[in-house]
Design a protein that fits this description.
The complex is a heterodimer of chains A (309) and B (159). Chain A is built from ten helices and nine strands. Chain B folds into two domains: 86 residues, Alpha-Beta Plaits; 50 residues, Aspartate carbamoyltransferase regulatory subunit, C-terminal domain (SH3 type barrels). Classes of the chains: A alpha/beta (309), B mainly beta (159).
Chain lengths: 309, 159
């Protein structure tokens, strides 16, 4: 499958076949991502890592992915040092960076920034998160982690838990999961439920999600529990936050009702949504998920820059 | 009376100009906003019918606007299609319909409406025209090509 010089901006850029190709390639990348094998598939290439917003996991895992494949990294994460601080438009910055590299990875606070970058750049643009919009590489590593844990994505029972309103990760993920006939349960307080236009989109693709505000309702049937952080700043009243945050806390007691092979995932960072006692159980997949950022991003970089594995 | 003569007993006929008929009920004032006409910048008459009963399928009420001595450019017609997707436009010459057509939305619209998401890159001073994919035509449902959001309140966001 030819991804060369394509962009990865949103879930709309991918179909099931393309997702499966990336997931298969990601599996091949695992020993290289661990450093057990080496391959300079992108030797001599240059990746521009443009982070206009703070990030730890995404930025580092893109860097690690690039270095593992022998790709050079041009890192721009201190915007006060760039022409942006002088009032240059993003479009002009991208045109300039485009001339210096083979691939652009962009994290930006404004929704649609990656699409704009893709419009003006001749090189592949990878969206590493644009505001509250898309985060397609996170979605791919989440799918990879689920497939790794369960062997397949088809027909899984997936419960998405926490802030489903503002969390960009779950919006993209839910839409991707509809391609695999997944049964979705949306667990959130009413005020943080999945936006209606996303739910309409899921329904249009044949997925009728179950909605509940009670975590316990979703636990027994779930194959995957995908937990997200509920942010304090979403609540004007701190006591309301405390009440809600406490309600959606995963600990060993609540997991007694779960299937033995339930996988608990979280895009991290967590605050107190998952008790540390869960870390040592076979349910915990969130650190594996964080590691998977490397092989999945290696697969994406390799596919988009035409590396040979 | 000839068959193609404009007939409407509630609003007087015009000799030359444009009749915008089957406007979505309540949208005629927004149509005037799109046309950019008011009492200070036009020398000919404008007639408006609001909440007029109609037999057109799927409509019970409609608005109608008649513009004396004015014809519309394609961009204006595209904007009208966004707020009144069932509207028909008749060009009147010497009391007769010289031309009649339905407004039509293309598969995408560019540069005539801005994104309702304030955090969309198209609202941040970048050299880019807002662009939307038309997902549904009646009523129009537009998705921003850049931020992927559904456009809310189309009439408030017309450029």
């Amino acid at each position: 499958m030819d991804f060369t010089n394509k962009d990865l901006v949103s879930i709309r850029d991918l179909n099931r076949e393309q997702i499966e190709y990336i997931l298969d390639l990601s599996k091949e990348m695992v020993p290289y991502a661990k450093g057990e094998k080496t391959k300079r598939a992108l030797d001599g290439k240059i990746m521009a890592n443009l982070f206009f917003e703070p990030s730890t996991r995404t930025k580092l895992s893109f860097e690690s992915a690039a270095y593992r494949l022998g790709c050079h990294v041009m890192d721009v994460s201190e915007m006060s040092m760039t022409s942006i601080a002088k009032g240059e438009t993003l479009a002009d910055t991208i045109r300039m960076v485009d001339a210096y590299c083979d691939c652009i990875v962009l994290r930006h606070p404004y929704e649609g920034a990656a699409r704009l970058a893709a419009d003006v750049s001749d090189k592949p643009v990878i969206n590493a998160g644009d505001g509250a919009g898309s985060h397609p590489t996170q979605m791919l590593l989440d799918l990879f982690t689920m497939k790794q844990a369960k062997g397949t994505l088809d027909g899984l029972n997936v419960a998405l838990v926490g802030d489903l309103k503002y969390g960009r990760t779950v919006h993209t993920l839910a839409q991707a999961l509809t391609m695999f006939g997944v049964k979705l349960t949306l667990v959130a307080p009413e005020s943080l439920q999945m936006p209606e236009d996303i739910v309409d989109n899921l329904k249009a693709k044949g997925c009728i999600p179950k909605k509940t505000s009670v975590l316990e309702d979703a636990i027994p049937d779930a194959d995957i529990l995908y937990v997200t952080r509920i942010q304090r700043e979403r609540f004007p009243d701190p006591s309301e936050y405390q009440k809600v945050a406490g309600t959606y806390r995963i600990d060993n007691a609540i997991l007694r009702e779960a299937k033995d092979d339930l996988s608990v995932m979280h895009p991290l960072p967590r605050v107190n949504e998952i008790a540390t006692e869960v870390d040592s159980t076979p349910h915990a997949k969130y650190f594996q998920q964080a590691f998977n950022g490397v092989p999945v991003r290696m697969a994406i970089l390799c596919a988009m820059m035409g590396g040979e594995m | 009376m000839p068959a193609d003569r404009v007939e409407d007993i509630k609003i007087p006929p015009i000799r030359n100009g444009t009749v915008i008929d089957h406007i979505t009920d309540g949208q005629s004032l927004n149509v005037l906003k799109i046309l950019g006409v008011n009492e200070n910048n036009i020398d000919s008459s404008i007639s408006i019918g609001i909440h007029v009963s109609t037999n057109k399928a799927g409509m019970k009420w409609k608005d109608i606007v008649k513009l004396e001595d004015m014809e519309l450019d394609p961009i204006t017609v595209s904007k009208i299609a966004l707020i009144a997707p069932q509207a028909t436009i008749s060009i009147i010459r010497d009391y007769y319909i010289a031309e009649k057509f339905n407004v039509k939305l293309d598969e995408s619209v560019t540069g005539i409406v801005k994104c309702s998401n304030p955090n969309c890159i198209t609202n941040k001073g970048e050299p880019v025209s807002p662009r939307f994919l038309v997902e549904e035509r009646c009523p129009p449902k537009l998705r921003c090509v850049y931020c992927d959001r559904i456009l809310m309140n189309i009439s408030d966001n017309l450029i």
